[in-house]
Amino acid sequence: TIKKANEAGNGQVNPCIRKDVNKVVDFIDIEDITDKVSLCRCWRSKNWPYCDGAHGTHNKATGDNTGPVVVRHKEN
Ligand code: FES
Is the pLDDT of residue 9 over 50? Predict the structure, then answer.
């Protein structure tokens, strides 16, 4: 599906995640984050919305430089 989206040249960022909804929105309660959490920004994770490392394959294949946003508790 990634190849298909690129071939279509439709400019879509999201190649395959929840394409049946108008807008992909996720909520994560801050209280549920015990240490830190890595959130996917490449839209290729199979564990969406969490990063599963798929950005590495995407970056190698495309020359892109995407990576996750890491949310963590501030160290005291
Ligand atoms: Fe998408 Fe890591 S898998 S940023």
Answer: yes
Does some domain include residue 62?
Answer: yes
Helices and strands in the chain: count of H runs, count of E runs? 2, 2
Q: Which two tokens stand for residue 35?
A: 């240490």
Backbone torsions φ then ψ of 48, nearest 5 degrees:
-50, 135
ipTM of the complex in this document: 0.99
DSSP E strand boundaries for the chain = 36-39, 69-72
Annotation marks residue 60 as catalytic: no
How close is the Cα of 76 to the center of ligand 1, in Å?
Answer: 28
Number of domains into which the chain is organized: 1
Rg (the chain; Cα; Å): 14
State if residue 59 touches ligand 1 by the CB under 6 angstroms criterion.
no
Q: Which CATH number characterizes residue 58's domain? A: 3.40.5.90
